[in-house]
Write a structure and sequence with these properties.
The chain is of the alpha+beta class and 485 residues long. The protein is built from 16 helices and 15 strands. The strands form 3 sheets. The chain has a 9-stranded mixed beta sheet with strand order 7-6-2-8-9-13-12-11-10. The chain has a 3-stranded antiparallel beta sheet with strand order 1-14-15, with no helix packed on it. Strands 3-5-4 form a 3-stranded antiparallel beta sheet, with no helix packed on it. The radius of gyration is 29 Å and the shape is globular. The protein starts with a helix and ends with a helix.
C-alpha cells in the first residue's frame, strides 16, 4: 500500500549503502631519485637559425586583429602618405602596436626580435624594417594622419560601447605629463613634479570609466594649464558620443583645474551630469562659510557634509555645492608612553564638490572619488604600453606614437572584454564593468611563451611546451576571440 512505500525506499537505500565501494588505487609517493638530479654544468651556447619563437601568445593578437580588421582600419588612416620605402605605413604602425604590447619601449629594441617568425607572420613580412626605416616613416606623419588615427581609436571604443549597451557612460578628463630629455618639437618646460626643468608634453586625455579605455586625447605642450583647449576637446567628445550612442546618459568627473563657468555651462548645455572639485582655498567667501559651519550631516562614521546653493559673483546662476569633510587619524608627534596606550587624535580633511546630480550626498561623494581610477589607468598605460615614451624630435611622430600606446592599452582591454561577459553591475564609483588584468600580467602569463613553428602534413602548427594551466587559459581566450561577434 501507499503507507509501506516510504519504508521500502528506506530499506533499498540502506542496502545500496551496504554495497562495498571500489577501492581507490594508493597514491604513489615519488622517491628522491625521481625528483632530484645532479646539477648540470654550464651549457655551451650555439646560435643557429631555427623556426623558434619567444612570443607564442601572439596567436591571441592575431585572432584579435583579424576580428577587429585592424589592418584595414590602419590602412585608411595613412593611405594618403606617399612613401619611398618598400614598407607600408600602416604595417609599420601595426609593428609599433605589437612592439608596445610585448613590453618593449624604445625603437632600437626591434633588433632583439628581428627574426622571430610569429611577429613576421603577424605583419605579413619576411623581414622587419630597420630602426632607421621606422624612424623615417614616423617622420613623414602629418596632421591628417594624427586626426585619422585618433578617429580610428575612437571607433574601436565606440564599437565596444555600442555592443555593451550601457545606459550611462562616464567620460573623465585629466592631463598627464610626458617628459622628454631632449628638445622635441612642440614640447616646453612646465609643471613637472618628477623631472623638474625637463621639457615635456601635457596632453589632455578622455577616458571611459566603464571599459577602462582611452577615448581620445588633445595634445599640448608642457607649459599649459589643464583647461587649455579643454572646452573644444570636451565639446568634440560629447558630440561623438551622442552621435554614436543615442539615448545614453553622459557623466563626467574633473579636477579643480576645470572649475570655470564656461566648462560648467558646456556640460549643462549637453545635459551631462558632472562633479567638479572646487578650489575653495582660493574662494574667501566659500572658505568662510565652511569655517563658520557648526552642524554637519553624517554620511557614515568617516564622512559628513552640508550643501548649499551658491555662486561666484561673476557667475550667472547658483548651483549645488557639497562641502564634505573626511575624518582621518593623525599620528601623534613627540614621545609616547609605551607602557600605557598610544593616544589617537582625529582631524578632518575638507573638500568641496560642484555637481548637478540630484542623488544623495553620499552617492555624489562616491561618484566623484571614483575618478581615481583614471589615475590608475594612466599609470598602467605608462608602465605597460609606453604611454610616457617620446621616441622622436618630430611633433606628429610623437603624437602618432602616443596614440599607438593608447590603442595598445585599449586592445588589451578589448581582448578581455571579448573573452568574458560583464562581471559587475553599475556602482556609484563607476568602476569598470569587467575584472581586468593588466596587459603586463597577460604578457607574462600568455604572450611571452616559447614555441616552435612546424608543418606536420603541410599544416602550419605552433608547438608549445606542455603546461595544463597555460593550455587551458590560452585555448579559452583563443576560442572566445574566434567566436566573438
Amino acid at each position: 500500500g501507499t503507507l509501506e512505500a516510504p519504508w521500502i525506499l528506506g530499506i533499498l537505500q540502506l542496502q545500496s549503502h551496504d554495497k562495498p565501494k571500489p577501492k581507490e588505487p594508493p597514491k604513489v609517493k615519488c622517491s628522491k631519485a625521481q625528483v632530484h638530479t645532479k646539477c648540470q654544468q654550464i651549457a655551451t651556447i650555439r646560435f643557429q637559425k631555427q623556426n623558434l619563437t619567444s612570443f607564442s601568445g601572439l596567436v591571441l593578437l592575431s585572432a584579435l586583429f583579424a576580428r577587429l580588421k585592424l589592418a584595414c582600419r590602419l590602412k585608411k588612416c595613412f593611405h594618403h602618405i606617399r612613401k619611398s620605402s618598400i614598407y607600408k605605413v600602416h604595417v609599420v604602425v601595426q609593428l609599433l602596436i605589437v612592439h608596445l604590447l610585448l613590453g618593449f619601449r624604445r625603437l632600437r629594441e626591434i633588433d632583439h626580435y628581428r627574426n622571430d617568425p610569429m611577429i613576421l607572420g603577424q605583419l605579413g613580412l619576411r623581414e622587419l624594417p630597420d630602426v632607421s626605416t621606422v624612424s623615417r616613416i614616423l617622420a613623414e606623419m602629418d596632421e591628417k594622419s594624427v586626426v585619422k588615427f585618433r578617429d580610428a581609436n575612437r571607433e574601436l571604443v565606440l564599437g565596444r560601447l555600442e555592443k555593451a549597451g550601457f545606459p550611462r557612460v562616464t567620460i573623465d578628463f585629466d592631463g598627464s605629463v610626458l617628459s622628454h630629455k631632449g628638445h622635441a618639437e612642440g614640447s616646453a618646460v612646465g609643471y613637472n613634479p618628477k623631472k623638474r626643468g625637463a621639457r615635456s608634453y601635457y596632453p589632455l586625455f578622455g577616458t571611459i570609466a566603464q571599459t577602462g579605455q582611452f577615448f581620445d586625447l588633445h595634445h599640448r605642450p608642457g607649459n599649459v594649464n589643464d583647461i587649455n583647449g579643454a572646452e573644444e576637446f570636451m565639446l568634440d567628445c560629447y558630440d561623438e558620443l551622442y552621435r554614436r550612442l543615442p539615448g545614453v546618459k553622459l557623466e563626467s568627473r574633473v579636477d579643480s583645474a576645470f572649475f570655470s563657468d564656461k566648462i560648467v555651462s558646456l556640460m549643462e548645455d549637453f545635459d551631462v551630469e558632472y562633479s567638479i572639485s572646487v578650489p575653495f582655498e582660493r574662494l574667501v567667501d566659500l572658505k568662510g562659510i565652511i569655517e563658520r559651519r557648526q552642524r554637519w550631516n553624517s554620511i557614515d562614521k568617516e564622512w559628513s557634509y552640508f550643501e548649499l546653493q551658491w555662486k561666484l559673483d561673476c557667475w550667472q546662476k547658483k548651483r549645488r555645492f557639497l562641502c564634505v569633510r573626511h575624518r582621518i587619524q593623525q599620528r601623534r608627534k613627540g614621545p609616547l608612553q609605551l607602557d600605557l596606550f598610544e593616544p589617537k587624535s582625529f582631524e578632518f580633511e575638507y573638500k568641496v564638490i560642484l555637481t548637478n546630480k540630484t542623488v544623495t550626498a553620499g552617492t555624489v561623494v562616491q561618484f566623484h572619488n571614483g575618478r581615481g581610477s583614471q589615475e590608475g589607468l594612466l599609470g598602467e598605460a605608462k608602465q605597460n604600453t609606453g604611454l610616457d615614451v617620446i621616441p622622436s624630435r618630430r611633433l606628429f611622430a610623437n603624437q602618432v606614437f602616443t596614440i599607438c600606446a593608447m590603442m595598445a592599452h585599449n586592445l588589451g582591454r578589448e581582448m578581455q572584454m571579448m573573452e568574458e561577459p560583464r562581471s559587475k553591475v553599475a556602482q556609484p564609483k563607476r568602476s569598470a564593468a569587467w575584472d581586468f588584468q593588466t596587459i603586463g600580467t597577460i604578457r607574462r602569463l600568455y604572450l611571452l611563451r616559447a614555441g616552435r613553428l612546424a608543418r606536420p602534413q603541410g599544416k602550419r602548427t605552433l608547438i608549445m611546451n606542455a603546461n595544463d594551466k597555460v593550455e587551458q587559459g590560452l585555448t579559452m581566450m583563443l576560442n572566445a576571440l574566434k567566436m566573438a561577434g
